């Protein structure tokens, strides 16, 4: 009798497939990144990310509640200030757009979900870099760390449960941990963007946060060809006190994600970024891909590769589809 081996046997019915399914994808695994813009009176669509908006303070609160009702595991907030300056002053202003939004959302959702904040200056600086610049216009690592420390404490005071330092400065996790501890905020966690690549897939995000950047971030973000370096970044971040680590972008970096999941002693996140969202939405708009199947397959792949959690702009939709 040939064939002797018949793997199809276990695929014959939904019940068989369910029984042998290796990977789970649940709403609790998903974190929704959200944008809030200062002074908006109406939610403002982001043309390169159909379905995603720059919220007003009010629409953000409502969308946050809806996402929590859908069961998402967390929310990650990004602020879009009206005024930018060299130091990114809005980032540390307790009444700045992001800190105000954190306060609003925390008041609304309490501890029902995990509220996270982007701890980075690029949304707030007039040059669009993730840190402050030195006299020659280079990003000044150590001067940036003190800005991050200040920003971290402001975000903790505003109600963030977890901070997401995304600037790829050396020592950022340690600097933030120390600042939080000195402010007696030992309860606030750090999700470190450990391996964040200098990626073309962040394109639509630039529109989402009205980025002022000209040039690139190659002196601080990683070279897309480097995998070993990602493991070093993870090791350093864990040593500095990271409670969880992240790989970003996601779909083009499954090998890095898989290695990270194997090596890491803390939970691992993957960030399915704006360009990944835009690619699939564009194909869906053309009738070339089915949204729900494609999105759920991409998220399942990230879980299979080892992500404990996934940041995705589809988090609320996917949570509803999974329900
Ligand atoms: C920096 C930051 C970026 C993203 C998240 N945090 C932009 C960048 O590094 O250029 C990109 C997220 C996305 O593309 O969805 N604060």
TrEMBL record:
Catalytic residues of the enzyme: 196 (schiff-base intermediate with substrate), 248 (schiff-base intermediate with substrate)
EC number in record: 4.2.1.24
GO biological process: protoporphyrinogen IX biosynthetic process
SUPFAM superfamilies, per the entry: Aldolase
Gene3D superfamilies noted in UniProt: Aldolase class I (3.20.20.70)
Pfam families: ALAD (PF00490)
Catalyses which reaction(s): 2 5-aminolevulinate = porphobilinogen + 2 H2O + H(+)
Family label: Belongs to the ALAD family.
Protein name as it appears in the record: Delta-aminolevulinic acid dehydratase
Gene source species: Haloechinothrix aidingensis
